[in-house]
Structures are given as C-alpha cells and as structure tokens.
Amino acid sequence: MASTRERIVTATAELFRRNGYTGTGLKQIVGRAEAPFGSLYHFFPGGKKQLGAEVIREAGLPYAALFDIYIASADDLVAGIEQAFAGAGETLVETDYADACPIATVALEVASTDDGLRRATAEVFEAWLATGTEACSTFGLSREAARALAIATVTSLEGAFVLSRSLRSTEPLDAAGATVAARARELLSTSAGSARHPRG
Amino acid sequence: MASTRERIVTATAELFRRNGYTGTGLKQIVGRAEAPFGSLYHFFPGGKKQLGAEVIREAGLPYAALFDIYIASADDLVAGIEQAFAGAGETLVETDYADACPIATVALEVASTDDGLRRATAEVFEAWLATGTEACSTFGLSREAARALAIATVTSLEGAFVLSRSLRSTEPLDAAGATVAARARELLSTSAGSARHPRG
Asked: Where's the HTH tetR-type domain (chains A, B) (predicted)?
C-alpha cells in the first residue's frame, strides 16, 4: 500500500485536476487520502502552499515523457505530432472530458495570486519544453526551431484542452493538431536537414 | 455612475479573471462593487451560479470583436494574425501578466464540476469561433478552412496565455503566433482563392 505521504500527494493531484487549487480543501484531501489530519502538517509543515508546490511538480514533471513516447520515438515528426494530439483526444473522451493537463487549471489560478506556486508551474512547463526541444531536435531541426515547435505543441495542447473540455468536443484538439503539424512541415522545410537523425 | 447591477457584474468579472470562480466570494464581490449584500440576490436570485453564468457571457462575448479589429479589417490574413498575437503580448506585459482571457480560468474550473457554467463558457467560445470563421472567410478560405483557422487562433491564444502567464514571458505567445501564421499560409495555399475578397 502507498505511504501516507504518497496517498496525500495522489489525492491532492486528483482534486487539483478536477477542482483546481482554490477549490480543494485540506479536509477533502485527508478524507480522500484516508490520512489523519495531523499527517498533512507532518509531511508538509508549510501547509497547503507547500503541498501545492510539491504536487504541481510531482504531478506535472512526468508528463514530459509524452514527448519521448509520441515524438522522439516516431519515424516521422509530423506523424508523431498528429498521433500525440489524437492520443490526447482519446484520453479526453475516455475520461468524459475530465483528464487533460495536470497543472493548467492551477497554473491559471495562481499566475497572478501566488508567486511561489506560479514558479512551480513554470518549472514544470520549462521541463516539458526542454524535453520537447530535445525530442524535436532529433529530426534535424535547429535548437531554435525545435524549441519553437515544442512551445507550439504545449501551447496548442493546453489551449485545445480549454476549448475541448468546454465544448465537450475533440474538434479543437483536431484543429490544434493540424496547426502544429503545419508548423512542423514549415520548420522542416526551412531547416538544414529534414531527415531523421539516427539515435543511440 | 454605473447601476448597482453593472457594478456587481464588473466587480465579479475582475475577480474571476484574477482569482477564478471558486476563489471569488460573494462578500468580496459586494465589497468591491460597493453594493449592499441584498442587492446581489435581488438582481441574481440564483446566487453565485446565476451571477457566474451572466458574468461569463457579459465578460466573454465582447471579445469576439477582436477578430473584426485584428483580422477582418487586415489587408493580409497572415499579417493580421501576427498582429493579433503581438497585441495580446503587449496587453499581457502592460498588465504584469494578469489580463489575458476573461473566461479561461473559470472554463477550466467548471468544465467538470458545473454543467450550467460550462455551457455558458461553451456559448462564449462558440460565439468567438463563429465571428472568427466569418473574419477568416473574407480572405477566400472555404468555411471549413476558415473555421479550422479560427479554432487554431483561439486555442493557440488560450494555451499561450497559460504558458506566458506562468513563465512571465511573451515567448509562448510569439511561438503561438508564428504557428497560427504557418497554418494560415498552408490553408491559403490550398484554398481556391488566396486574395482578399472585396467587402461591403
């Protein structure tokens, strides 16, 4: 069975994803985690803010791996991008439009209200962009072009999640995927080499 | 001076934008609006939910006009798109990364928790897409291509706001603008006519 600390982090991440930071109460967290109230302050003496920052990092950072799964391992950059957006659409439908980005709601909530939590979201986004730049670089793009494409991928996914969840439709995700694919084609055509570099 | 109802709506819109739906309390609203507490239930007998839905619509719908200001009136579709993203970046910097989309935070918060409020956000997004499709159509794109580009514009702006506010940088907005511009060039090149249609 998961440790008390792990159960608290997992419960908080689930509640943040659905209710946001402000909408998640400490009583709700310990209830869902089946943990005594005191254990929360034992593991997170800084209370909700400290727990929030750690949950943002622990829930957010692993998502960088999606760049490796969908893009770095694809034979074709454009096809890899299209598959990443299609995969995100399938997850949204399967979860009844609930599961999208683990940190976007919190990121918008805290952007202007809590600088410590904002920094935690910034760390996660920068980690994603670093992994995404690496993944896109393997297709012969310059670092600058690879970073531009990584940013395009993350921003388009995040914005498409906002619209797709609101409209309960994958149309925004589909349009966003086609948009990033067009940018990838443009960047590949102006880049030195458009062929996949051998790896490993 | 604005009517009591107007002051309540304006105060709520400002609080939603900065603190989100859950983080905005009724006492805060009447305090900022300098309105007696009872007036809130006089104008919005359904309480916070009714007020929330009306504020989402009243704050969100006017933003459709940005498609007319930046895109429908541009001589060149790609330049119009680039100017729209540059303008959004200037607003973000001027407001210390606080003012971005009037409804995105609320849209993410309520997407899975309140279907009435979710529908209000969906109405606003659909209204933007309708105006955006109209604006993009004036450049000779098919309805389908024009709608795809309108969706790309809104999703890319929304996602770029998430990252730009978190990172306190306009880099995501710049990358998103270049991405939508690439999609516009692609759609124009495959469309029947790429020249601007005369209007009026």
From this structure: 2-62
DSSP structure string for B81-130: HHHHHHHHHHHHHHTTT--S-SSHHHHHHHTTT-HHHHHHHHHHHHHHHH
Give chain B's mean pLDDT: 93
Mean pLDDT of chain A: 93
- ipTM of the modeled complex: 0.93
Of the options 3.30.200.20, 1.10.510.10, 1.10.357.10, 3.40.50.2300, the CATH number for the domain spanning B61-190: 1.10.357.10
Contacts of A55 (CB under 8 A, 6+ apart): A9, A12, A13, A16
- Nearest CB among B22, B107, B166 relative to A162 is that of B107
Average pLDDT of the segment spanning A34-48: 95
Domain ranges of chain A: 4-59, 61-190
b/e string for B12-27 if b means 16 or more Cβ within 10 A?
A: bbbbbbbbbbbbbebe
The count of CB pairs under 8 A between chains A and B is: 184
Among candidates A105, A111, A160 on the partner chain, residue whose Cβ is nearest the Cβ of B108: A105
Q: d(Cα A43, Cα B176) in Å, to the nearest integer?
A: 40
**Cβ pair B14, B95 in contact under 8 A:** no
Q: What are phi and psi of A111, to 5 degrees?
A: -50, -40
Residues of A in contact with B108 (CB under 8 A): 20, 104-105, 108, 161-162, 165
